[in-house]
Fold this sequence. Notes:
Elements: E1 7-16, E2 19-29, E3 34-38, H1 45-52, E4 60-65, E5 68-69, H2 75-82, E6 85-88, H3 100-111, H4 116-129, H5 145-156, E7 163-167, H6 175-192, E8 195-199, H7 203-209, E9 212-217, E10 220-226, H8 227-231, H9 236-244
Parallel strand pairs: 3-8, 3-9, 6-7, 7-8
Antiparallel strand pairs: 1-2, 1-4, 4-5, 9-10
Helix pairs in contact: 3-5, 4-5, 6-7
The protein binds adenosine-5'-diphosphate and magnesium ion.
Amino acid sequence: MEKKPIIRVRNMVAKYGENTILQDINADFYPQQVTVILGSSGCGKTTLLKNILRLYQPESGSIEMFGVETMGMEETAFEALLGRMGMLFQNGALLNSLPVYDNIAIPLEQHTCLPPEIIRRIIEVKLNLVNLSHAINMLPSELSGGMRKRAALARAIALDPEILFCDEPSSGLDPLTSAAMDNLILKLKNQLKMSIVIVTHELASIHRIADRIIFLDQGKAVFSGTLQEAMNCNIPAVLTFFEVGKF
Length: 247
Ligand SMILES: Nc1ncnc2c1ncn2[C@@H]1O[C@H](COP(=O)(O)OP(=O)(O)O)[C@@H](O)[C@H]1O
Ligand SMILES: [Mg+2]
């Protein structure tokens, strides 16, 4: 690979209590690429994202981000790194009592000291980027599923992250809305030069957006490589996915 990874995971073990979910994970995520994490339901994809983001503390191993080892790093130092990352959670996780505007304002008010008029401008720019300018004053309950995902995406990119993590961004969306979401993700990669890590099951999406694939099976990363390599590999679980496409 020509570039240095922006995230480099080595021998990472992730547990919930005594229950080991991920063993000895090795994975590289490259700058300005879309890396798709694949694997059957419950295999630990969300767990991998959450351990990389330290929402849970990995049991052991090494996670380098931006060339810096993050395991054992102090909370405050890690928080500075977190400011360079955005996360689109599986359920969108918008606050239902707040309009779209205020939802996107949250990270800007928490992590910057920008004056209100600049914050407003940033929110307008991000909403325009996700084609949601008209919904600025709407409540999440007034939005369709696709609009909610886009609002959550606008919030995830409010601080111009260098890495964006998306957990099943098209789940529950119809094929057209899902394709629009993919186009947005490609726009973030190509225009804003973001590195993107995505969990998705949608074969159509994978073919549209994936530069690289990391395939989890039984707690291990059994494959990592390009989409082309994935389709030509000889790992049964990977081939089953690409031939059958369903879990
Ligand atoms: N907070 C948690 N506490 C305990 N077990 C969990 C927790 N979150 C997930 N798990 C378990 O860890 C395994 C992997 O979950 P998850 O990472 O959500 O899978 P995926 O995202 O691949 O569907 C599952 O068996 C799940 O039940
Ligand atoms: Mg999940």
